[in-house]
Amino acid sequence: MNQSPSSDVWKSVNSNSSNGVIKKSDQFLFRPEKEPIYTPGMSAQPLPLPLQTARLTLRLPRPEDAEDLLAYYSRADVARYLLEEPWTPDYAREQLGKRVARTGLDSETRALALVWEQAGRVIGDLGLWLTDQRGEVAEVGWVMHPDYSGRGMATEAVRPVLDAAFEVYGVHRITAQMDARNVASARLCERLGMQREAHLRQDCWSKGEWTDTLIYGMLAADRAKT
Ligand SMILES: CC(C)(COP(=O)(O)OP(=O)(O)OC[C@H]1O[C@@H](n2cnc3c(N)ncnc32)[C@H](O)[C@@H]1OP(=O)(O)O)[C@@H](O)C(=O)NCCC(=O)NCCS
């Protein structure tokens, strides 16, 4: 089974199950290695990294970030609405190994992984990945250390990445999907200006139960209106 390169943590609408094992259908459409990337609206300029916000630096992940990510991904409260169980040190290294290849929607992986740092410590991370063949529909997901929550930092980190998705990568639409009980994540979508488009009832078997999924979306045209 092909695994989605970036939706391995975040809930995917196409998730399904069998015998309690989560399987994700192949939402990614892998390009043959030599085929040029076809993304009609993509800028000729690469995404300028790192991205700097008032409080945060967003950069590509490095293998040595495993320890900082483990500090929050190993927590039960963080994993509660993720598809994965709390991380172990080995799993953290494995994940970082995958994420370092996700250098942009224009890369072979068709995905961008970023971590955000405050005072030299990685306190959160996000993934942005293409879900269609044209390269104009993307999905986004995020996780942050609970010690830093409630201060608008996730909002501050994700906002410039949505900007980059539309302005640098020329995407037409971005979605975010989450367990319907994940109120903090839904509120983050709303702060970012995404619209709640669907509430799917018990569409995903996760951690021993059928769970509902919320889908939020934002179009390039929505941004033009604001
Ligand atoms: C989803 C998640 C990143 C949201 O974190 P968060 O702390 O709620 O989000 P922010 O950092 O943007 O902070 C927003 C909160 O800070 C407050 N805040 C304070 N200053 C703020 C500012 N300058 N700007 C925006 N919000 C601010 C907001 O009012 C909001 O609080 P509220 O929800 O009580 O209204 C976090 O809950 C998380 O990592 N969860 C575990 C992993 C997970 O489930 N990921 C999603 C999978 S789909």
Layout of strands and helices, then pairs:
Blueprint: E1 15-18, E2 21-24, E3 51-52, E4 57-59, H1 66-73, H2 76-79, H3 89-99, E5 103-104, E6 111-118, E7 121-130, E8 137-144, H4 153-167, E9 173-179, H5 183-191, E10 195-206, E11 209-219, H6 220-225
Parallel strand pairs: 8-9
Antiparallel strand pairs: 1-2, 3-4, 4-6, 5-6, 6-7, 7-8, 9-11, 10-11
Helix pairs in contact: 1-3
The protein binds coenzyme A (COA).
Coenzyme A (COA) is lined by residues 10-11, 78, 81-82, 141-144, 149-155, 178, 182, 184-185, 187-188, 191.
The CATH superfamily is known as Gcn5-related N-acetyltransferase (GNAT)
Helix content: 10-25%
H/E order of the elements? EEEEHHHEEEEHEHEEH
Beta content: 25-35%
What is the tally of helical segments? Answer: 6
Quaternary state of this entry equals: single chain
- The CATH class is identified as Alpha Beta
User: Can you give the mean pLDDT?
Assistant: 87
What is the CA-CA span between the terminal residues?
41 Å
Please name the CATH architecture: 3-Layer(aba) Sandwich
Tell me the domain tally: 1
Radius of gyration: 16 Å
Unreliable spans = 1-5, 13-36
Sheet with the most strands?
A: 9 strands, mixed
CATH structural fold name:
Aminopeptidase
Q: How many strand elements?
A: 11
Give the class from helix and strand content and strand pairing. Answer: alpha+beta
